[in-house]
Amino acid sequence: MGVRFLSFGELLWETAGEKRRPGGLSFATAAHACRLGGAAALYGRVGNDPDGDRILSLAAAYGIETSFVQRDRAHATGEATLGPAREHQGIIGYTVPRGAAAFHVHADHEIMERLAAMRFDALCFQAMSVMFPRPEETLACLLESIDVAEVFCDFNLRGRLFNRKAFECSLHHATIARCNARELTTISTILFGKLMSPKQFADAISRKFVVPLVCVRHGCESCSVYHAGEFEQVDTPADAPGDASGGGDAFNAAFLSLFCAGKPPSDSARAANRVARYAAQHTDGIPEYPPGIKSLLRA
Fold first, then answer.
1. What residues contact 137, with CB distance under 8 A and at least 6 apart?
2. 35-54: per-residue pLDDT in tens?
3. Domain ranges in the chain?
4. What is the pTM of this model?
């Protein structure tokens, strides 16, 4: 059995142009983790409707544990619409119905008891999750209840669903924080009132919020890793020409799979860059990873 993930957050459908797919960082990270040989479970909420049925069916097909997902009879599963990113800011356009079931998740006593009896290597969530009162309360309760080694926060900026409070709350929970280089302008200005380099940002996050590990991605071929006071640029040359962007959820799953298994952060990031690049070249969904990619995750 590989690394065991618990993925918390929004379970929605996402529409971009003519494409419609199950969305939310929680779903995608869990799916990549399972495809890479790990085990993953979802904690979230969907409507008691066909869209909710379909999300759970697809999750099960990837091998994701769905018994911790709540069903909502009063609120629909909901659909988010993705738009173009704001230039130089890395913020993807994102419109989502505020009444979606995802934002009514709560700390279910029976589920919490079941989770408390288990151990997870990593809990993953995105900063957007704590923008809403009930998910914020649920995440806090979850972290008090479960046995988990690492708490991974991906800033993953979407639309206008972020603010200083959400960033600070997320970082107080996190042991690992990740963002993209293009998001730095927004995040560093909100948190520290100025633009920062990746090194300055990682050092400030680590000191102010006591986050042991900070990662900044620069596309699929490079990232910066800050851990134990050391800052390292990790470059992974491309095997072949192709898209160097995207693949963030695959990066998360691969990085955590290795780091939680005991690999150094730089080695984990180097392999995760290659996994992310492969995933970014398969835009039609979560790919089946070939043996050569899976072999990168052998700790």
1. 106, 107
2. 999 999 999 999 999 999 99
3. 4-283
4. 0.93
